Inverse folding.
């Protein structure tokens, strides 16, 4: 990395370019415009040039010129999934840090190419946007696991509910787009690799119940529900031999009105995780100076893709899937 | 039944005898002494004569003389499981209503003999003590299913936690003694028969995660945890296509003290379900006059035993158990 | 009382007559019909003969013949306030226990006549229907005060909200009909007599904030709100020098639907306090046999009326009212 | 202000100096070091030179040289209360924005001098550190008042509890140091000026109950409790004619352990309001460029001091204090 000698991290403000400013990329760009200490939005590329221009900063004609520009210190990738791998590889080739929305690549084979390139480069440059790792609730659960106060971890209950699947949502995306978050966050929470999984379905567009087992004899039980009808809702409870810890109800204020007490759910994941997105961006920008990687690595992105691929295959039947994951290289041990 | 002509149910106070006044039987006897409108404790049998005498009512030398006594209108059975079937059969022979603690019989074969005897007798005389059916929380969930406000029912999440298994607790009892409650209550809540089940274990005395599927394409996901460490805790959430309903936190008052806000869990199931036990006893006693059966029938007790037996067999492995349950006779349709 | 020698309280079922079966009296009559162990509804008087007959038990032509009937062991008074004192005095003259809805009398002078009569009779026969003393939440708060775990009691916060005042509700009734409950329950909770009070008003039909101080240097702060708009809601929090205890949110089940999580408030006080009414009736009937008075005494009813009268006078201005209450006679010490 | 032409606010990073880095000033300095987009810590003054140096940025020998330095764009004042007015006046003289911890001045007379100086200068340069205005919960309450969904506002209930008063805390500080927050936030929430107040005390170091009335016929009822024993706890509930809104329990995660469910309270106000402090600093720094004032003005600081002074006088007795506040100049209307 460029830095190193600064004792005050803020002496350098990183110039960040964003590739793709649809829903998610626009959220990242706004964070860089208004809410990222130590980072600034310095460039945007989008297939829609008008959309790119709307942020009021320099725009680029193509993604590779953004990646290679001397005005850009780091790259955020939020373009269509199929393009992720190429842009990540280009960023690695430039030796620039990259924050890539999940999935890291459309296929496991492409993800593996990224792994190879990053190891060859000798530096950890890739972070995958599993923003839940920066959510205060998940961080509380993880601390409780680490400090041992709940005893031996035994069960993790996850609930992942969307109000209604968008029209473009198709079968396998419940795994590759939604459940992939639980694959990452569960392994991170437990510091444990999953080794088997089984899916139970309800109707054609009803919830999935997915039961996974880990190398350390834990069970991860997840409801993935793309059409819960009432709002966006994510919940997790960690069960240990001496107690449990779970997210509190997601309420900031309570309303007594019209015969009931209530609080509202957000319509989608962005308001639910906006603080996590903000902290993820901040931590990522800070890591450019410190050089210490934070968040999900390329390896995490790769194995998550591997597991998701196997689950997509298993989705049809009730058979239990045994997962044999590759050994994590030392390069990816924190 | 004797009654029928009374327009005021309380014109008759039923005289009830209790067989077995250990922990559960003593709770029933106290309810009949102090808290059952329309019923009174009229006799007790217990192998420990001193314990039997402590309730200050008539005691009997043996269970059959209690069952056959002219002073006894109805019988509560809370003696050891192996004795249940014989006493239930004796009560049927006398034409007297009987409330039998679960299980209705130690084996499915014995349970079937009870079914045969009751059908032969031509009247529904047997109620099994699945008291959760009288819990206000479960009743709310069931009403929500019936009124259809949550749409198509899809998933039922159950949590069943005991602080610590007693010393005499052995492997299969987690099914036959604990999970048997979820088998009954889930089918009653959903009005749906289970047709497959699969068990996931955590260590030797850790929680079980049990996934069942029903004839109406619902999934029942249950954590049965005999050693949760923190207290007795039962929770259920019903997920429909248009929303969910779940039990509120079991708190009556909240304490702010010593750095935290808290409420306590009960040590065991009796305080948690004392109102359900009271309402069960009251409803059972009232049913002597109305003749309309309430609560779990002998058939419910029989099929619950069948399912539990299959699950005990399945406990060792990860294989999915397909359950083929006998057809419910018309005699047992409400 | 008749009893005394029975070791089993249920050996005797008390025959109770109810005078006045409007909203509140009908609720009492139903409790006696269906839900009062040891008691039964044996007679009803109401100015509306048809309404009286609807309970299916013996009806009386006038209240005094009910009170004096040999078929009636105890009397519940739920007739218009102006009649309370006469009926209570008649019951005392018969030596029969009486449960009188609040207020015990329309004026303090009448209440004093009851006190005199009861003391002359030499036995505690009168209970005033301050049912909140039987509410599980208030009982928890009181136990916390008694066991000393919260240290020195300092502040009691009360919230008393009705959805909308009925049309017949007029100014002073916010004190004499509504706040009178807080006068009784607060002194009972704290075991402390109030010695001053001050009222703050909001508009003509807005809430009152009433601050009272007690003989033991405590402050009781109450919002009395007859038109809160959203439902019936009663809450209390007791603040001590070492912590606080308060009622939990009044939710049995939680609904996730239409964008929010919610639970409902009851429309009025009867569902909120139905368990308290039931336990009050049960305890009152039991007290006929034990002879030990329970609940609010005639003295409590008298002093509550005294305080309410002074507050009605104070309602116009902001002046602080100093209350000088008569000394509690030994006859009324528990 | 210097800026104006920039369309991207982040093009300029403001250089901020902090005067006084004790508990509160150190928190501000850390926010500027790590967590303030658009701002950076550029200088520190503290009477303790070593403490000043610990932040790794330029230190100043005296406060006035910091205020006047060309390296400093804006000033945060967190030095002892008695020094506030002089430093604020010096900052105004330099035409630099200043964020001053409350109180704006030790006396109302000094505060008035600041008002005069700021009006003479012709620009709003002073913000008082009433950080609660940036708390997400209070913002929800205020929005509910503004959008009118709760009807006419009627009552605001405040609870302000500290675990234990520090040793240096003396009588009047419960008003000038603690309750002063409720004076500001209540008027801001209601957009209503208080016009009378009355204090009720409990013992010598027990809670105060303070009842205030506003120009718009609202009642503000506040418990100020410096020794609640259990933790730092701030709560507010706004009551309107059509419903209420209140802060949800301050829980992020819930722990089931050792017989109870619990969440922890923070030990003091900094963790409770850290997000509000962060957002306050960010908004203040952003306002340097936009020129639009945010937060509490010098006028708000002045009138809060006026009210606090009157309440300190009233603290001894039970008399009601009528407050006649000066008219807000147009200069201070938003």
């Amino acid at each position: 990395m460029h830095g190193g000698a600064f004792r005050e991290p803020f002496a350098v403000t990183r110039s960040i370019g964003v590739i793709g400013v649809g829903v998610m990329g626009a959220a990242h760009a706004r964070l860089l415009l208004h809410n990222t200490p130590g980072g600034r939005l310095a460039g945007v590329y989008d297939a829609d040039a008008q959309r790119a221009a709307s942020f009021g900063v320099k725009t680029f004609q193509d993604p590779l010129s953004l990646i290679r520009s001397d005005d850009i210190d780091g790259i955020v990738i939020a373009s269509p999934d199929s393009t992720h791998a190429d842009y990540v590889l280009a960023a690695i080739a430039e030796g620039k840090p990259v924050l890539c929305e999940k999935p890291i690549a459309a296929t496991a084979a492409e993800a593996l190419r990224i792994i190879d390139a990053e190891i060859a480069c000798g530096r950890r440059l890739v972070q995958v946007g599993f923003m839940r790792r920066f959510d205060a609730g998940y961080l509380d659960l993880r601390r409780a696991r680490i400090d041992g106060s709940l005893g031996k971890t035994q069960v993790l209950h996850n609930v992942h509910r969307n109000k209604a699947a968008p029209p473009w949502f198709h079968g396998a995306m419940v795994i590759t787009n939604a459940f992939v978050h639980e694959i990452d966050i569960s392994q991170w929470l437990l510091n444990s690799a999953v080794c088997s999984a089984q899916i139970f379905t309800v109707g054609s567009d009803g919830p999935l119940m997915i039961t996974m087992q880990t190398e350390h004899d834990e069970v991860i039980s997840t409801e993935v529900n793309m059409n819960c009808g009432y709002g966006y809702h994510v919940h997790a409870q960690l069960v240990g031999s001496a107690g449990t810890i779970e997210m509190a109800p997601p309420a900031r204020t309570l309303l007594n009105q019209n015969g009931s007490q209530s609080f509202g759910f957000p319509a989608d994941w962005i308001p639910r995780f906006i603080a996590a997105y903000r902290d993820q961006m901040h931590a990522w920008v800070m890591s450019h100076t410190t050089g210490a990687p934070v968040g999900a690595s390329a390896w995490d992105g790769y194995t998550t893709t591997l597991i998701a691929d196997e689950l997509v295959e298993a989705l049809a039947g009730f058979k239990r899937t045994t997962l044999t994951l590759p050994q994590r290289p030392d390069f990816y041990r924190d």
